[in-house]
Amino acid sequence: MRAVVYIITAILLSVLQTTFFGHAEIFGARPGLLLALVVCVALLRGSVDGGGVGLFCGLVTDIIGCGTFGVHSLMFMYTGVLAGLFSSKFYRVRGIVAFCFSLAFSLINGFLYYFFAHFIWGRTQMWFALSRKIFPESIYTAFAAIPILLIIRWANRRYGAREV
Amino acid sequence: MKDLFTNKYFILLLVITVLILVMAALYTAERQSVTFGEDLVASVITPVQSLATAASQTVIRFAGYFGDIDRLRTENERMQNEINELSDTVRTLEQYRLENERLREMLNLKDNAKEYNLVASRVIAKDPGGWFNSFTIDKGTSDGLAYRMPVITSAGLVGHIYEIGSDWAKVITIIDSGSSVGATVARTRDVAVVESDIALSGEGLCKMTYLSKSSTVITGDIIETSGLGGIYPKGLLIGKVREIRSETAGISQYAIIEPAVDFGRISEVFVITNHTGR
Question: Residue A34: pLDDT band by 50, 70, 90 thresholds?
């Protein structure tokens, strides 16, 4: 049942990201809601759930989005696995933890994406990419992680899932 | 280390990684149709996106209503002045039109204006990431659309269809950093390429490259499609020249183009169905 909640949440967040947040950009940035979901699940449930949810969210992003198929699937899956490795380090995952981890992983993902999709192809406006795309999007994503953490925590409690 | 390689989750991670890389390699090449799985997922999400877009636009319109009042007042004054100027221009143009008709009759020229078959569709979603300038529309192959058909608005060229399902299609815009369009300067007939990059696409602009140093292009020149390249028919309005700059090497110049279409506010587009890009 918990998996169903994760899947429904992922689909709803992907719809929100492509519709409402497509019109509600702040400084040209949109939050990476699915990435925030992956980080929150990974922090609360560990690498296995994090990697699984990451793979699903990545596939959804690859299918409904643009660009090379598989890029988001791999990045989100590894984000889930890596963020999950830190899950046992915290007695209780608070909003600030989700905020910091989402910020860090969003920065890493954004930079990797820019490097492989733009930089190596000669589109090297790195300062623009950092200041106008990667930083604003990461901050937006980090803020979005806080309510998403509350939703996942509610789902875990509701369906009896043990948080790591 | 040995434990790591015998760990079932680690092996699963490697298998999934290899599978995704194989799929990425298979699907990287340009495709005229999507797989059944992709079509199924997109067909399920499309109606939800359609509803969510309608709801989002209602909320955003309502929120923007109060802030719009001041802006509308200023815009009204500006437009009133513009109407006065345009009235003068219209009178002059009417004289030119009559003269043009008379000259055409004298030369017995045929009207070469093309007739396009258009299918109207709504924009229902934007790309989930911030790196691409693409969006999804609510029409697909069942409405007669096909891969690489040009997409326009009443203002000008938007882009083309690059992925299509039964009742949805993804449109890549001309301001996407991977896009390039064969273009011509309407006044001088100089041929060049309109493309974008990361910095310009963020501002909704693109640039016209490969302009020779001897080109007499000036600010305000109208840029339209040249028909070269095969995707877009000739004569579609792209935008106008905002600024001209020299390339670093100094042997050519490029122009910053302000597209005729406001890509931040597209909600409805038209697909040209009687021109399929090659």
Answer: very high
